[in-house]
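User: Predict the structure for this protein chain, please.
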Amino acid sequence: MTWRTPSSLKWLIVNYSRLQGEVMLLERQSAESDRQAAEHRRLWEDAKRNLQAIECTLGMHEIKVDPEDIEQVQPHVNKPMYRHGAMTRKILTTLKSAQGWMSTGDVVRHVTGHTYENTDHELYEKIRRSFRNRMRAMVAKGQVERQPSGGYREHTLWRLPQRDD
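Assistant: Here is the predicted structure, written as structure tokens:
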């Protein structure tokens, strides 16, 4: 004799399973957010303590400077991915080894090893955008040629300039 699971029970089991997975995911994300918040709090306290120490030292200097008169300088939020000129060199090396047209995604994969599938999607898009911007600047300088995409979903292609022999 076979036993048939009622559809209402199956629906409850499936919903329970999905919600259980969602709870576990949110729990992990919450723990990571708490860890990041604690790290930011520690960095903030260190910076504030250093600021107070410098403020105290300014007060002891023979030339009096009011700390309120010193204008703030905002730090860079987006740190560059590579040292100055390194990205350009890596792009040129990759295009030279390809000896033909390459899409932006292919260049990113050859230089960094990142693909849309194996990397966080937001991080990948940020990396891809920075490579695309760099290659556009290289086109303006004549270091690279660009073949625009034919349509909405087609990729822009890049290559080293070809000499007319």
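The chain is about 60% helix and 5% strand.
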